[in-house]
Design a protein that fits this description.
This protein is mainly β. It has helices spanning 2-16, 133-136, and strands at residues 33-40, 46-52, 60-61, 66-71, 76-77, 80-81, 96-98, 105-122, 128-129, 131-132, 139-147, 152-154, 170-191, 206-208, 210-217. The chain has a single domain (60-217), classed as Sandwich (Jelly Rolls), CATH 2.60.120. The chain is built from 2 helices and 15 strands. The strands form 5 sheets. Strands 3, 4, 8, 11, 12, 13 and 15 form a 7-stranded antiparallel beta sheet that branches. Strands 1-2 form a two-stranded antiparallel ribbon. The model is unreliable at 1-38 (pLDDT under 50).
Amino acid sequence: MLLVAAGVFVVIWFAVGPGKSTTETTKDTTTTTETDHGVTDTNGNTTTGTTTSTKPAQSGDLNSSVSTVSASSVTSDQGTVYAAAYIRDNREDTCWAERAGTGQFVEFYFSRPVVIESVKALPGYKKFNVVDRYLQNSKPRQVSLTFDNGTSQTLAAFDLASSWATLDWQTRPLAAPVTTKYVKVTILSTYPGQNMGGGHAATNDVSTSEFHFWGRPANNV
């Protein structure tokens, strides 16, 4: 019997090995819930609890949060109305256009409060139709933003592209993020259109293909 017991001990010792436990602990790298261990009250009772951390919403395009958009004026050409809605339709070959220029504005209303951090825009008409419409039309140079709390910020001027093909999205950060449900974008200055020749004179149409806000939904509002 002693020989048999000794043989069993040897087998177990080789299987487990010195200093090892038959139970291994693995680290959970997927859970986002933390357990608070060892909270003891004055009576010696130990309780545990869980703490769930909520990550802040990531910044992104707020275009889907816009409920309505309207403009101070619009222009039309051969039956096509260049309405304010085109400024956020996610198409680069459409635009909002008006002829008055400085002082004209677009108003954005959001479905819920948002935190606006920057603006992303295609400041001009990104289209070639017989001629380069970006060069032919006027385009916004600088704009201001007015929010529902009455404050305003003036953005840095947009860059002038060399043609419709080189016109790309331009980002302009706010001086400080703003929580709002409304933004009024007012044109402060413009780049003039160019005479394209062949009877295609420069126009006073101030065109903007896209104007989006970048940020996140406001928390606890």
